[in-house]
Every structure is written in C-alpha cells, then in structure tokens.
Amino acid sequence: MSKEKNSYEGSISSSYKNKELLKGVLLLGIITTAIIGLVLAGVFLAWWIIPIEWIYLTIIIVYSLFVAIILIVYGYNSIYVRNFTYTILEDHIVIRHGVFTKIVATIPYSRIQNINVVTGVFDRMFKTFTVK
What we know:
- There is one protein chain.
- The chain has 132 residues and is α+β, with helices and mostly antiparallel strands.
- The protein has one domain (8-131).
- The protein is 52% helix and 18% strand.
- It contains 3 helices and 6 strands; from the N terminus they run βααββββαβ.
- It has a 4-stranded antiparallel sheet with strand order 1-2-3-4. Strands 5-6 form a two-stranded antiparallel ribbon.
- The longest helix has 32 residues, at 52-83.
- It is elongated and about 75 Å long.
- The protein starts with 7 loop residues before the first strand and ends with a strand.
C-alpha cells in the first residue's frame, strides 16, 4: 500500500486472460479453418498432381502454428495480467503496466474529462468490463 492514507490498489481480473484467450482461439480457429479449406479445395481441383504426403504435411504445419500462436498469446496475456496494477490515490491514479517495456502512468483527477465503461459480448460472458 501507498503511504497516503486514502488509497486503493487493484489489478486486472484473471478472467481477462481467459477472455483474451477465447478471442484468440476463435479468430485463429477461423483463419486455420479457412487455410485448411483452401488446401482441401486445391487438393480437390488438382488431386492427381499433389502427393498425399504434402497435404498431410501442410495440415500438420498449419495446426502446429495454430497451437504455437495460442501458447504465445496465453503466455503474453498471463504476463500482462500479472504486471498490470493500478493505485487510486487522493488526487491521482497511478497505472503500472507493460510486458516488454514497463510503463508508469500518473493521471491527475483534474485531467479526467469522462469515463466510458464498455461491456462487449466477451466481457458479458466473463463478467468483466473495459474502462476507457
């Protein structure tokens, strides 16, 4: 806690990590399905030219990249959630965040003009919200 008597410290909900992971899985799943669909369409149109081993290899490579990207997204979001903290003090808010570059932002209350609370589809699923 801070030395000031009226302060509050907090961090991002761990549900944020799950929400971002689901968004990444859905997006990459759609992209992966499209790539596999294009490969299979190409195979259907030129089945006598393309060796079956190349088809299997292409599918394995695409799904391996899918899994690798999901693991990277999960790791990045885990570190981001762990490093994001905020402190609400008597006359300002201090936000600390960053994975590769650590940033400390101090926002005096006099500079805040409005606050938007956004609850999208995924936010409602995980009972979270975004403050902008």
